[in-house]
Amino acid sequence: MKLLVDHITHYQYDAPVGYALQQVRLTPKDRPGQQSVHGWTIEVEGAEKQLHYTDHHGNGVDLIAVGSGARELVVRCRGEVELHTWDGVIGAHRGAMPLWSFLQPTALTRAGRHVRSLTAALGRDFASDIEQAHALSALILDRLAYKVGVTDAETSAEQALGGEGGVCQDHTHIFIAAMRHLGHPARYVSGYLRMDDRTEQDATHAWAEAHFDHIGWVGFDISNGHSPDQRYIRVATGLDYRDAAPVRGMRYGAAQENLVVQLQVQQ
Predict the structure, then answer these.
(1) What is the number of other CB atoms lying within 10 angstroms of the CB of residue 107?
(2) Within 10 A of 249 (CB to CB), how many other CB atoms are there?
(3) Taking every annotated instance into account, which residue ranges of this chain make up the domain Transglutaminase-like (predicted)?
(4) Which of 91, 123, 179, 229 could be a cystine partner for 186, CB 3.0 to 4.6 Å?
């Protein structure tokens, strides 16, 4: 299956920006046998590309600088990704980060009282670790309804579980925290999902991957209740959202921003 992506991220500032530096992780990963990237471009308006590099998680990163006096920034990604037959199994671990590093908690994925209570409710009577992981995914969705506007990028797994709901980012952080608490390496994935009922979307998507002996990395889309398939494009991975955020950076000055995202994913 081939998917076409047209993704525009538009920042508008209410005052001239003193200076801003953004890390853009919006280049999909090439992985033989799973996905191949064709003709992918990233164009910017209101800023200049400083360099492109590969970070310690194997993510392609474009560093862009917003000059003094800018009132808007536009980042547009376009391209085609060919998805090969797979069932959510990524396989053997690769890259510079050692596997054990994906067991360490972060500020967003620390297992506190709420996460430990969740894993205790899960039980241990499962035929396999993967069966347990799927049961955990279902339990998270049952405990935390999908609800927009009650969390943000800095909401931790513990805070989300103690709240009124959350989005895919929150479901993913909770799953990662719980899997690490259970002794399995886990990581965050950001990317694109082709919806069955529409082309226009409000945002990129997020899901998790956990590592199992003799199988390797396996994906879990907690918000949709299944493992990723040919509709999913893997873009960036990391210990949590901060490592895999599509756009993340810093800005000097008192300007406030308004963000508008236009995204199309279609076959």
Answers:
(1) 11
(2) 14
(3) 160-224
(4) 179
pLDDT tens figures, 33-58:
889 999 999 999 999 999 999 999 99
Tokens of 183: 């002794």
CA pair distance 1, 102, nearest whole angstrom: 31
- Domains, the chain, ordered by start: 2-84+247-266 (2.60.40.2250), 89-244 (3.10.620.30)
* pTM summary value: 0.95
Residue 230's alpha-carbon distances to 40, 67, 82, 94, in angstroms, are 18, 39, 9, 21
Report long-range pairs for 241-244 (Cβ below 8 Å, ≥24 apart): 241/108, 241/153, 241/169, 241/172, 241/173, 241/188, 241/190, 241/206, 242/106, 242/108, 243/57, 243/59, 243/188, 244/25, 244/57, 244/59, 244/188, 244/189, 244/190, 244/206
Please name which of 265, 249, 264 lies closest in space to residue 11, comparing C-alpha atoms. Answer: 249
The pLDDT of residue 143 is 95
Strand order in the sheet with 247-252: 48-54, 60-66, 19-27, 247-252
* Residue found under tokens 């995202």: 261
Q: Which letter does DSSP use for residue 100 in this model?
A: G
CA 91 to chain centre: 19
Return d(Cα 64, Cα 46) in angstroms, integer: 10
Q: Tell me the HSE value of 60 on the side-chain side, using a 13 A CA sphere.
A: 13
User: What is the β-pairing status of strands 200-201 and 60-66?
Assistant: unpaired
What residues are paired with 38 via a beta bridge? 80
Q: Could you give the CA distance from residue 28 to residue 263 in angstroms, rounded to a whole number?
A: 15
